[in-house]
């Protein structure tokens, strides 16, 4: 595989991330089309980057620079590695693939290497081989998911990694919390927020993305940021579950309803049709 042929492959998320957008993508794409032209594109809860890669595949980012961020340091390690030295990441993943097995998995899980490319490849390796592709951490920020039961996990999808790397060349990737979007976004920009969802029931919450939960006060703070962006002339779109809290926090904006099946419970493996809210300020 040469780097030239990588351009023929259209990139998809290279991590399996809870909250990947599935059927919501089409609606989101329509929202983005309605916001064009925009100057810059911001995704402050980037996760697996489902919408970013979809927009790239469909040529909808135009010349806009992308600001991709998330507060999960492991995730950002993986993005930065793929962006800066995808061949280095691929070489390391090939090694993981050759050595993969139960003992090897738990040894990799236990140690966070100091080298940034080693860290990036470790995150991708664990993500592809762990149970359910979850990226759950304990209160000390340690990855604690057991080995998954995949017969032949796609540890090193070289073509997609190269294509993702090409797409990420236009992006500024940073670990930071969502409210910092206020320091980056300006009039004419577009922001897409995909926060951890407000739980539809007590048992359905999944807040294990990283240390610390995303509760009511975070949802309220996010609605405050949404309001400030609106006042600044920034176009903003947000997806969340259609709960009384979300309806009341965004009552001043257009709220569309989309029926989608998502993994929403704490095990992340039970799926059902739930109503999702698509909020926009334009
Ligand atoms: C619903 S997921 C995003 C899914 C993503 N759109 C995708 O396509 O995979 C929510 C993301 O928010 C991140 N997150 C949680 N709290 C955050 C915070 N305070 N600031 C920024 N990101 C946060 C999590 O690490 C997770 O990646």
Task: Kindly list the characteristics that best describe this protein.
7-stranded mixed beta sheet; 282 residues; 2 domains; alpha/beta; 39% helix; disordered N terminus; binds S-adenosylmethionine; Rossmann fold
Walk me through the structure.
- The chain is of the alpha/beta class.
- It folds into two domains: 190 residues, Rossmann fold, CATH 3.40.50.150; 63 residues, no CATH class.
- Helices cover 39% and strands 16% of the residues.
- The protein is built from eleven helices and seven strands.
- It has a seven-stranded mixed β-sheet with strand order 3-2-1-4-5-7-6, sandwiched between helices.
- Helix 10 links the parallel strand 4 and strand 5.
- Helix 4 packs across helix 5 and helix 4 packs across helix 8.
- The radius of gyration is 18 Å and the shape is globular.
- The structure holds S-adenosylmethionine.
In short, what is this structure?
This protein is 39% helix and 16% strand. The chain is α/β, with parallel strands linked by helices.
Q: Indicate the CATH architecture of the largest domain.
A: 3-Layer(aba) Sandwich
The gyration radius over C-alpha positions equals 18 Å
Q: What is the end-to-end distance?
A: 44 Å
How many domains make up the coordinates? 2
Q: What share of the residues lie within helices? A: 25-40%
Largest beta sheet: strand ordering = 3-2-1-4-5-7-6
Provide a count of the helices: 11
Look at the structure and give the CATH class of the largest domain: Alpha Beta
Bound molecules: S-adenosylmethionine
Mean pLDDT: 90
How much of the sequence lies in strands comes to 15-25%
**Structural class by secondary-structure content:** alpha/beta
């Amino acid at each position: 595989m040469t780097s030239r042929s990588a351009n023929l492959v259209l990139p998809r998320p290279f991590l399996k991330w809870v909250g990947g957008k599935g059927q919501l993508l089409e609606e989101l794409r329509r929202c983005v089309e309605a916001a064009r032209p925009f100057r810059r594109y911001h995704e402050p809860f980037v996760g697996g980057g489902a919408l970013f890669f979809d927009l790239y595949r469909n040529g909808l980012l135009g010349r806009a620079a992308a600001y991709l961020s998330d507060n999960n340091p492991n995730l950002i390690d993986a993005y930065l590695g793929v962006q800066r030295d995808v061949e280095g990441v691929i070489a390391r993943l090939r090694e993981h693939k050759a050595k993969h097995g139960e003992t090897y998995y738990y040894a990799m899980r236990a140690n966070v290497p100091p080298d940034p490319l080693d860290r990036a490849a470790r995150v991708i390796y664990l993500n592809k081989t762990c149970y359910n592709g979850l990226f759950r951490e304990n209160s000390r920020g340690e990855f604690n998911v057991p080995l998954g039961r995949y017969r032949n996990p796609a540890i090193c999808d070289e073509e997609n990694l190269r294509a993702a790397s090409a797409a990420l060349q236009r992006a500024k990737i940073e670990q930071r919390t969502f409210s910092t979007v206020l320091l980056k976004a300006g009039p004419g920009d577009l922001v897409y927020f995909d926060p951890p969802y407000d739980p539809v029931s007590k048992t359905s919450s999944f807040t294990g993305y990283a240390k610390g939960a995303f509760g009511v006060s975070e949802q309220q703070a996010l609605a405050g940021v949404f309001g400030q962006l609106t006042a600044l002339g920034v176009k903003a779109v947000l997806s969340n579950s259609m709960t009384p809290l979300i309806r009341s926090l965004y009552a001043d904006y257009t709220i569309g309803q989309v029926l989608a099946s998502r993994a929403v419970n704490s095990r992340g493996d039970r799926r059902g049709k739930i109503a999702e809210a698509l909020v926009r300020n334009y």
